[in-house]
Amino acid sequence: MTRWFRVALGLCSLLIPAAAETATERGKRVVDEALKALGGDAFLKMEDRVESGRAYSFYREQLSGLSVARIYTRYVAPAPGQIAVRERQAFGKDEYSAVLFNENGGWELTFRGARPVADQRYETYKDSTLRNIFYILRQRLNEPGLTLYSQGADIFQNVPVEIVEITDADNRTVRVYFAQLTKLPLRQVFRRRNKEQNDWDEEVMMFSKYRDVGGIKWPFEMRRDRNGEKNYEIFSESVEINKNLKDNLFTLPASLKILPKAK
């Protein structure tokens, strides 16, 4: 099937509305299809994940950092007002430095000790996590007050997509683009209030190069843009799931020196 045929097929779908299907019903159907495409029950039972590859950071579209990276993620039981995931981002072949996030805060870890990240950085991480489509599908679909509302079909980068707006009880909203052919998430967009600038930041995440990992589909390439500028990209060389990751990866050792909080 050529790319242009897929585009033509998608255009045809724009002209044929689903009979007697409300925007809410269509949104739920699209999200349910995406969950099934990602692995269904296997995706929902994913307890942890290890992504290894190359991570790039950018400032004003210019490369500002490159590192071998390994990202450890473990899901935990949801609790009111907290994120239900723990993450350790380790850098360098010997993981000489890391950033740790859990439900209690965030820390930069080096041989000097653990430095708590600035409050705004942790709040940004928490907000981005709560709006991440994979986190929503894994942890939040049954959350009270979560609504799924279809914005209809469109063409994005020559790919026919279904667009769904997801809003939670605290009025956090994310717009997600799902490929009509594969049902997988391709792109998500949301706006966050920038208190320092008294303005809005727009954050875009793009997902590609999906591969099968232990019965689930996972994107091996992810890119984040903020206000139209690329600021982060990761190319995974391997992804593993359900590795029985231990608590010591996601908690601070009692003997570790705590440094002053970052500003």
Question: What does this molecule look like?
Answer:
The chain is of the alpha+beta class and 263 residues long. The chain has one domain: outer membrane lipoprotein receptor (LolB), chain A (Clam), CATH 2.50.20.10. It has five helices and 13 strands. It has helices spanning 3-14, 23-38, 41-44, 119-131, 133-140, and strands at 48-59, 62-75, 85-91, 97-102, 105-110, 113-116, 147-156, 159-167, 173-179, 185-194, 199-213, 216-226, 229-241. The protein has a 13-stranded antiparallel β-sheet with strand order 6-5-4-3-2-1-13-12-11-10-9-8-7. The longest helix has 16 residues, at 23-38. The chain is globular, with a radius of gyration of 19 Å. The termini are far apart.
Give a quick summary of the entry.
Helix content is 20%, strand content 47%. The protein has 263 residues and is α+β, with helices and mostly antiparallel strands. It has one domain: Lipoprotein localisation LolA/LolB/LppX (outer membrane lipoprotein receptor (LolB), chain A, Clam), CATH 2.50.20.
Give the integer mean of the pLDDT values: 91
In CATH terms, the superfamily is Lipoprotein localisation LolA/LolB/LppX
Q: Please identify the structural class as seen in this structure.
A: alpha+beta
Strand order of the largest sheet: 6-5-4-3-2-1-13-12-11-10-9-8-7
Morphology: globular
DSSP E strands, number? 13
Could you tell me the CATH topology label: outer membrane lipoprotein receptor (LolB), chain A
Q: In total, how many domains does the architecture comprise?
A: 1
